[in-house]
Amino acid sequence: MIQITYQRGKCIGCNYCIELAPDRWRMNKKDGRSLLLGAKNKKGFYTVKVNDTEYEANKASAKVCPMKIIHINKLNK
Amino acid sequence: MKNRTIEIMAPAGSWQSLQAAIQGGANSIYFGIEQLNMRAKSSNNFTLKDLVEIAEFCNKNNIKTYITLNTIIYDHDLILMKKIVDTAKQTGITAIIASDQAVISYAASINMEVHISTQTNITNIEAIRFFAKFAEVVILSRELSLLQIKEIIKEIEKQQIKGPSGNLVQIEIFAHGALCMAVSGKCYMSLHTANSSANRGACIQNCRKTYTVIDKEDGHQFDIDNEYIISPKDLCTIGFLDQVLDSGINILKIEGRGRSPEYVKTTTQSYREAADAYLEGTYNKEKVKGWINKLESVYNRGFWDGYYLGQKLGEWTGIHGSKATKQKIYLGKAKNYFAKIQVAEFDLETEHLKEGDNIIITGRTTGIIETVAGEIRLNDKQVESVRKGDNFSMRLDQIVRPNDKLYKIVNIK
To answer: Is the distance from CB of B339 to CB of B255 less than 8 angstroms?
Structure first.
């Protein structure tokens, strides 16, 4: 499993995360910021645990995010 | 020149800077809302919720308010963009500064005043005629010379080019602050190197860094000594503001939404004084020296004339960061103010402070107070200085509020 963390309040809506991991990210057209699908919000930090198969795509999203607000952690089983 | 007024427009990246702008004598302020502005990454932008308060406060103080909504706009931004423009209209914000046609046409369609951003790179009279269908003010490209600007203003009058209100289109220029190494808004270095688009307000400022040149044939590397080869110095027009204003310009913008309140106050005040001196006929070299001295005390990368005088192309700064002659050191926070006896109480969290030190106090409502530390008392006894951990009181003839920040100003050696 991996955990994706996303600090949504700082998103500038550049769309890169969606381009690189379209299964996990979607644009919210109401406020122009990305949504991390399936994530729970705790004080502005959105987190979701997903399968290892999503690692590469989301790691790429984290890497290109201009605001550096996406973090991926591998969870020990 | 009796009826002429010169509008000094100051940057408001925070409530502190907004107050500082008003204290410095600004006629108008500009600021970003949410993420659709050119400082989305580097300044604490206001939110939609702040708009009502900003509009109320500025309208009460007779300050015009402009929202910068000037990034490129994607489809997914349209709802937010419209929400910002609608809220601006409802709350009584003066105008929207826009560059994308979506913003320009939407704002114009609901009769919200539009100003054309410098990001649109307007450099000729025909472009102004085109945008006059939507806009009252055009902020010219920063790369024009004063001669070109003068000609444009003359033509607006001659051809009677008017905005939607029926008034002649007004021309605004940047008077002071950071310049872009590229033609404004046409730089993609940050996007290419870090996926961080300058045109979405997320410039990582590649141009402000040092570089090494590599000989591709033999691999030799050369550091480029003492020169930040693509980092322009900051624009400063105060030394030839008479020529700027002679060209017919009536709106002067100060750049710096990412800067501190003391930067905003100092720059605004200097340009206010210079513009007023020009109108009164007392603008002279002696005064210019004083203003430049003041401007050098706050953040700057060294000054140059920009492109306005047309002689030298690009002056590059030899330093990273600021050349400011003074710096502020954080000391602590205000706890209380006793108005009757004009005494303020502070917690000194770090460093030390003595009577006679130059200090500044900043806060959301306070804005910025620049003064000299008065009589200091610790445990009801007068002392010469206080240090980290002390809870002390000080005579102060201006009101401060709890949690206002206290700083000491020191010269940089």
So the answer is: no
The interface predicted TM-score (ipTM) is 0.77
Q: Model confidence over B121-170: pLDDT tens digits?
A: 999 999 999 999 999 999 999 889 999 999 999 999 999 999 999 999 99
Contact: B200, A30; criterion CB under 8 Å: no
Q: For residues B170 and B108, give the distance between their C-alpha atoms in angstroms, rounded to a whole number.
A: 16
pLDDT tens digit sequence for B359-399 = 999 999 999 999 999 999 999 899 999 999 999 999 999 99
Residues 185..204 of B with a Cβ closer than 8 Å to A: which? 194-197, 200-202, 204
**Tokens at residue A1, please?**
């499993």
pLDDT tier for residue B183 given thresholds of 50, 70 and 90: confident
**Domain A2-74, CATH class in plain words:** alpha beta
A33 part of contact set with chain B, CB < 8 Å: yes
At B211 the pLDDT is 79
* Alpha carbons B257 and B319: distance in angstroms, whole number: 21
Whether residue A66 and residue B41 make contact (CB cut-off 8 A), yes or no, is yes
Asked if B40 lies within 8 A of A64 by C-beta distance, the reply is no
Task: Please report the residues numbered 25 through 44 in chain B whose beta carbons come closer than 8 angstroms to any beta carbon of chain A.
Answer: 34-36, 40-41
Q: Write out chain B residues lying below 8 Å of A14, CB-based.
A: 195, 197, 200, 202
Q: Which residues contact B114 (CB under 8 A, 6 or more apart)?
A: B95, B96, B98, B103, B104, B107, B108, B134, B135, B136
Domain layout of chain A by residue ranges: 2-74
A3-31 burial code (b ≥16 CB/10 A, e <16): ebbbbbeebbbbbbbbebbeebbebeeeb
CA B86 to chain centre: 25
Residues 41-70 of A with CB under 8 A from B: 64-67
The two tokens of residue B257 are 């939404």
Q: Which of B43-52, B64-73, B281-290 has the lowest mean pLDDT?
A: B43-52
Rounded to whole angstroms, the Cα distance separating B326 from B344 reads 25
What is the model's pLDDT at position B313? 56
